[in-house]
Amino acid sequence: MRRKIVAGNWKMNGDLAEMEDLLGEIKNQLGSVDEEITLIVSPPFPNLYPAFQSLRETDVLIAAQNMSQHEKGAFTGEVSADMLKGVGAKAVILGHSERRSLYHETNKDLAEKVKTALNHKMNIIFCVGEELESRKQNKQVKVVKHQLEEGLFHINSKDWGHIIIAYEPVWAIGTGETASPAQAQEMHAEIRKMIAEKFTPEIAEKVSILYGGSVKPANAKEIFAKKDVDGGLIGGASLKADDFLAIANSF
Ligand code: 13P
């Protein structure tokens, strides 16, 4: 059975005090979440270690929102895999559309980041997703295939245990507009097919594929009910403990 995952991408939100409050509220309600569900939170870099300390006694995992492809050296403003692991991040989000569009991360950059992360045995939440223009032209599958082929599919079969894929249609991020459950299912099934064809059906069957883009308590249930949707990568709604946990309880 595939792992069910609800991951919060906190983006650039919350100072230390606000994060402590949020984590406190999340911890208070953890008892309500089914043990089968893996919860992940992704604080900004400076808050990774305090989050790790705060979550020590829990099963909540911590992911960073980005990582350098380089090991160390003269890369001002960058953060390495070793540094992330040292402060308790077991996973990293790579290829988020905001990184791709605002910071010009290319598929080639992402392929290198994936390689570095895997060398350090980090787990990766690899994001893909088309922009509105591509969806209008019905090119979404082609776009996502290209992102996967260029950015992720160079990995070895044995590394798939470290990979989670997040399908986040750019037009649904922070817009209040969600892909319909049918649209999400269709793309998730396509992604699984791509993995089966390039690797093996067994590997494809085991990879968790999350949906992201305006997921909230009101729509999570019908999205998560789809056969190939294994959870969500949540932005705005993950900043409220009640909403985040309600989403986690939507399977
Ligand atoms: P929203 O849930 O705010 O639309 O953001 C989704 C997202 O980008 C998660 O990575």
Automatic annotation (TrEMBL):
Substrate binds at residues 9-11, 174, 214, 235-236. This is Triosephosphate isomerase. One of its GO terms (molecular function) is triose-phosphate isomerase activity. The keyword Isomerase applies. The active site is at residues 96, 168. It comes from Mesonia maritima. Its EC number is 5.3.1.1. Homodimer. InterPro entries: Aldolase_TIM, TIM_sf, TrioseP_Isoase_bac/euk, Triosephosphate_isomerase, Triosephosphate_isomerase_AS. It catalyses: D-glyceraldehyde 3-phosphate = dihydroxyacetone phosphate. Involved in the gluconeogenesis. Catalyzes stereospecifically the conversion of dihydroxyacetone phosphate (DHAP) to D-glyceraldehyde-3-phosphate (G3P). Pathway: Carbohydrate degradation; glycolysis; D-glyceraldehyde 3-phosphate from glycerone phosphate: step 1/1; Carbohydrate biosynthesis; gluconeogenesis. The lineage of its organism: Bacteria, Pseudomonadati, Bacteroidota, Flavobacteriia, Flavobacteriales. Pfam families: TIM. Keywords: Cytoplasm, Gluconeogenesis, Glycolysis, Isomerase. PROSITE patterns: TIM_1, TIM_2. Signal peptide: none annotated. It is found in: Cytoplasm. Belongs to the triosephosphate isomerase family. NCBIfam families: tim.
